[in-house]
Each structure stands twice: as structure tokens, then as C-alpha cells.
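Good morning C.,

I know you're traveling, so I'll keep this short. The sequence:
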Amino acid sequence: MTKLELLIASLKKSIMHRKNMKQYFSEKFSIFDKNDILPRKQIIEAIKVFSAWAVPAFIFVLWADTYYPDVEFYKKAITEGIGPNLWNAIGSFGLFSFGIALAFSPLKTPSLLATQLLSNTYAIGCLTFGLLVGQWCLLPFSELVWWQQGLFGVTSVFLLLLVFVYNLFVWYLSFLIHSSRNHKSKFLGKFEQLHWVWRAGIGTFLSAISLAAFLNA
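The C-alpha cells, ready to paste straight into the viewer:
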């Protein structure tokens, strides 16, 4: 066979291998339905939590700046609330517990713990977001020239949206494994039907990532 024929044969084998892998994974994870991974009515709960934490935080920033701009206690409280350390720490434990909940999906305790940690992380993130937006509204945009206002405005809005989406993803993880004493999420119920090797592998991988991120923070 010529080099060209060998190359063509190799490409065909590679394509067939990819097709077989795709079919293998499709068969393995075909047990999941879109209703298992897409929130519907549950998104209302996420909006309620967001409103309960972000709106009061936003109002507090404006109120403190308007009526008590010289009170250091309020300034420090806002600064500490915006600081990401608490969110990062609890979020790392939440992601770690999420991986454990997947690895031990037949058990209820890991999913209950992970649900609480992720829900608390989301609430703290909503509080931080409200404080950030409040601080953003108080920035001295009038002191900047027009092009600086546009550049800074677009950049800062993009970063705020990124923070919002990132925090919403935490809520989504809690939605996937949301469990109570008498209820288990559809996703988790389907996930535990996978072979224990898959459950252990995926769960351990996610837990290892979160642990590495926490230790290297």
C-alpha cells in the first residue's frame, strides 16, 4: 500500500472509532431526559432567593451612601460582603460535595449535604451581586470622558453578567441533585442507574477538581 492509501485507511479507522465512541456514550447516557436536566417551575424558586438576597443588599448600599456615607462600620460591612473569599470557600466545598453526591448517588445523605451547601453558596452569591450592583451605581461616571464611560461601562456590565451567570450555575448544580428526606431529584435518580464505575469516576473527578482549586486558591 502507498503512503496515501495508508493515510486514508488510518483516517477511516479514526472516523469509525469516533462513531463507535459516540454511539457508546449515547447508549450509556440515553437514560437521561431533557426534563431531568432542565429546570422549569424550579427557576421561580431561584428568582425568589435572588430577590430576597440581592434586592435588600442593593438598597442597603444606596441607603448607607445617602444617609450615612461616613459610617465606617457600613463601609467595612459592604467591603467584606463583596469579598469573594467566603463564596469561594463554601462554593469549593459545595462542588466537592456535589461530586461525592454523584459518586454515592444511591445514598441520600451526600445529596442532602451537597444541596444545602450549594443553596447557601447561591444565596451568598446573590447577596454579593446586590452589593456589587449597588457599588456600581455609585461610581463617579460623570468624572470620566465619554469614551472612558463607554469602555468602562461595557466592561463592568459584562463582568457583572459573568458573576450572575457563574452564581446561577451554582444554583443549577443544586437543582440537579436537589433532595429532601422524602424526595430525590429526577437527575440523581437516573444517575444512580449508571454502572458504579461511571458514578465513581465522574464524582471523583469533580471532587478532585474542586479540592485542587480550593487548595491552590
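Safe travels,
E.
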